[in-house]
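To the team - NAP complex, inputs and output below.
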Amino acid sequence: MLVVLGATGNVGRELVARLAEAGEEVAAVARKAPEAPLPRRVRHVQGDLSSPASLAPHLKNASGVFLLIPGGGADISPQVLRELLETARVSRVVLLSSLAVDTRPLATSHAHLRAVEEGVRSLAVPWTLLRPGGFASNALAWVPSVRAERAIAAPFADVALPVVDPADIAAVADRALREEGHAGKVYTLTGPVAISPRQQATVISKALGTPLRFVEWSREEARSMMLRFMPEPVADGTLDILEAPTEAERRVSPDVEQVLGRPASLFSAWVERHVAAFRPPMGVSNPEI
Ligand SMILES: NC(=O)c1ccc[n+]([C@@H]2O[C@H](COP(=O)([O-])OP(=O)(O)OC[C@H]3O[C@@H](n4cnc5c(N)ncnc54)[C@H](OP(=O)(O)O)[C@@H]3O)[C@@H](O)[C@H]2O)c1
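Output:
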């Protein structure tokens, strides 16, 4: 049995679907039950990473575990997590980490994730680390303003980064969980080309067939918005990357293509699959347009 933590998230949802398609038995862990029905052979497991006792019975003897550290993750001790995986005798661990663990070695925003990586590296069983850059799905934060006002607001409008499709991360995780040859590997996962927020807005506008107004936020405006749903160090660490990415953060990584044998997906491919989310509900129209 394979265990997927964060099973209802951007990456976990795609991974669960892939594993189910391959006929695997999957325990899909999240605190809340999924909104959509689960595929056959997948069962929802209510578990909270902050309360390891809630996870222990479900991890026992798992043939593979996909692990992520949601939000800031500060309430999950890396030592406790490591002990949990060892005691459960899981056979393989794939950790969804972050590129920033490598590119921002001094950033407090990623100190906890770095400690979790170290814990996973010290496990006696095969492990794989996935270090993605920014997700294409971060664009979902623009859904309310696109639907309500046909507008997108973002800071650092022309700073381009190779955002990665969560489905590509899931596809690499799938390989790492079920194929030999990924033990001890650290994969940097990016999209195939750098794209700025303004260019992302253009792609969404084209997919919708509607002009969108782009508003460039100041760092402070973006920060106050981000603090509504993420801890301060994570907001500041993320803004540092968006404002002045290092060369390593701008670089397109070959790892998705090397693992999957096909190029990483473009941002436009992610938009095509999610364009419906950006459309206003039927019957609601903007009188300005
Ligand atoms: N977004 C980016 O640009 C980016 C870049 C690099 C790395 N990352 C990493 O990617 C991860 C987020 O991945 P994602 O976007 O796929 O996730 P997501 O869409 O934010 O979803 C989080 C998932 O984790 C579950 N979850 C949240 N808190 C939990 C808890 N305490 N115990 C158990 N499950 C919990 C959620 O379900 P419930 O709420 O029902 O529990 C949900 O299934 C983070 O670790 C982040 O560091 C993100």
